[in-house]
Protein backbone atom coordinates (compact mmCIF):
# COMPACT_ATOMS: atom_id res chain seq x y z
CA UNK A 1 0.00 0.00 0.00
CA UNK A 2 1.27 3.48 -0.83
CA UNK A 3 0.16 7.01 -0.15
CA UNK A 4 -0.10 9.74 -2.74
CA UNK A 5 0.09 13.51 -2.34
CA UNK A 6 -3.57 13.92 -1.41
CA UNK A 7 -3.40 11.49 1.54
CA UNK A 8 -5.23 8.74 -0.30
CA UNK A 9 -4.25 5.20 0.60
CA UNK A 10 -3.93 3.37 -2.67
CA UNK A 11 -4.77 -0.32 -2.37
CA UNK A 12 -4.30 -0.98 -6.07
CA UNK A 13 -2.55 1.17 -8.61
CA UNK A 14 -4.35 2.48 -11.68
CA UNK A 15 -2.60 1.24 -14.79
CA UNK A 16 -2.47 3.46 -17.86
CA UNK A 17 -4.54 1.10 -19.97
CA UNK A 18 -7.43 2.03 -22.24
CA UNK A 19 -9.90 -0.11 -20.29
CA UNK A 20 -9.33 -1.51 -16.82
CA UNK A 21 -10.86 -4.87 -16.07
CA UNK A 22 -10.22 -4.95 -12.32
CA UNK A 23 -11.84 -2.73 -9.67
CA UNK A 24 -9.85 0.24 -8.39
CA UNK A 25 -9.80 0.72 -4.59
CA UNK A 26 -8.86 3.73 -2.47
CA UNK A 27 -9.59 4.69 1.11
CA UNK A 28 -10.09 8.34 2.01
CA UNK A 29 -8.16 9.62 5.03
CA UNK A 30 -10.65 11.73 6.99
CA UNK A 31 -7.76 13.09 9.11
CA UNK A 32 -5.88 14.33 6.03
CA UNK A 33 -6.17 17.71 4.27
CA UNK A 34 -8.25 16.53 1.29
CA UNK A 35 -12.04 16.35 1.31
CA UNK A 36 -13.80 13.10 0.46
CA UNK A 37 -15.05 14.60 -2.80
CA UNK A 38 -11.48 15.58 -3.77
CA UNK A 39 -10.30 12.04 -3.07
CA UNK A 40 -13.20 10.73 -5.15
CA UNK A 41 -12.44 13.04 -8.08
CA UNK A 42 -8.78 11.99 -8.12
CA UNK A 43 -9.72 8.31 -7.83
CA UNK A 44 -12.13 8.59 -10.78
CA UNK A 45 -9.41 10.34 -12.77
CA UNK A 46 -6.86 7.62 -12.04
CA UNK A 47 -9.24 4.70 -12.57
CA UNK A 48 -10.61 6.00 -15.88
CA UNK A 49 -7.44 7.69 -17.21
CA UNK A 50 -9.38 10.94 -17.61
CA UNK A 51 -7.93 14.35 -16.74
CA UNK A 52 -8.81 15.34 -13.19
CA UNK A 53 -10.59 18.54 -14.29
CA UNK A 54 -12.90 16.49 -16.53
CA UNK A 55 -13.49 14.03 -13.69
CA UNK A 56 -14.55 16.90 -11.43
CA UNK A 57 -16.93 18.30 -14.04
CA UNK A 58 -18.49 14.88 -14.64
CA UNK A 59 -18.92 14.21 -10.92
CA UNK A 60 -20.68 17.57 -10.54
CA UNK A 61 -23.22 16.44 -13.15
CA UNK A 62 -23.91 13.25 -11.16
CA UNK A 63 -24.00 14.53 -7.57
CA UNK A 64 -23.03 17.66 -5.64
CA UNK A 65 -19.48 17.06 -4.30
CA UNK A 66 -20.27 19.10 -1.17
CA UNK A 67 -23.25 16.82 -0.54
CA UNK A 68 -20.88 13.83 -0.54
CA UNK A 69 -18.63 15.61 1.96
CA UNK A 70 -21.59 16.39 4.23
CA UNK A 71 -23.22 12.99 3.86
CA UNK A 72 -20.14 11.09 5.00
CA UNK A 73 -18.45 13.58 7.33
CA UNK A 74 -17.58 12.20 10.78
CA UNK A 75 -20.41 12.22 13.31
CA UNK A 76 -20.63 14.70 16.20
CA UNK A 77 -17.95 13.05 18.35
CA UNK A 78 -15.60 12.96 15.31
CA UNK A 79 -16.12 9.21 14.92
CA UNK A 80 -16.17 8.04 11.31
CA UNK A 81 -19.46 6.82 9.93
CA UNK A 82 -19.47 3.05 9.83
CA UNK A 83 -22.52 2.56 7.60
CA UNK A 84 -24.05 3.85 4.41
CA UNK A 85 -22.95 4.11 0.82
CA UNK A 86 -23.61 6.06 -2.36
CA UNK A 87 -23.43 4.53 -5.83
CA UNK A 88 -23.19 6.41 -9.12
CA UNK A 89 -22.14 5.58 -12.69
CA UNK A 90 -19.39 7.54 -14.43
CA UNK A 91 -17.83 6.81 -17.85
CA UNK A 92 -18.78 3.14 -17.93
CA UNK A 93 -17.73 2.58 -14.32
CA UNK A 94 -19.78 1.89 -11.21
CA UNK A 95 -18.52 4.07 -8.37
CA UNK A 96 -19.40 3.29 -4.75
CA UNK A 97 -18.44 5.51 -1.82
CA UNK A 98 -18.82 4.04 1.67
CA UNK A 99 -19.29 5.88 4.95
CA UNK A 100 -15.95 4.64 6.27
CA UNK A 101 -14.08 6.29 3.36
CA UNK A 102 -13.70 3.29 1.06
CA UNK A 103 -14.15 4.01 -2.64
CA UNK A 104 -14.53 1.23 -5.21
CA UNK A 105 -14.56 2.00 -8.92
CA UNK A 106 -15.49 -1.01 -11.07
CA UNK A 107 -15.55 -1.03 -14.86
CA UNK A 108 -18.76 -2.36 -16.33
CA UNK A 109 -18.32 -5.40 -18.59
CA UNK A 110 -18.23 -4.53 -22.25
What brief labels describe this structure?
alpha+beta; globular; 110 residues; single chain
Question: What does this molecule look like?
Answer:
The chain has 110 residues and is of the alpha+beta class. The chain has one domain (2-107). Helices cover 28% and strands 25% of the residues. It has helices at residues 36-48, 52-62, 65-71; strands at 2-3, 8-10, 24-28, 85-90, 93-98, 102-107. A 6-stranded antiparallel beta sheet has the order 1-2-3-6-5-4, with helices on one face. Strand 5 (93-98) and strand 6 form a beta hairpin. The longest helix is centred in the middle third of the chain and has 13 residues, at 36-48. The chain is globular, with a radius of gyration of 13 Å. The chain starts with a strand and ends with a strand. The model is unreliable at 1-17 (pLDDT under 50).
Amino acid sequence: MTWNATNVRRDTYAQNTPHRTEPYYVTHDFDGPATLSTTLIHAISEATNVDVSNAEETLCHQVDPQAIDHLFRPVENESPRAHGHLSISVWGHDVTVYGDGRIIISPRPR
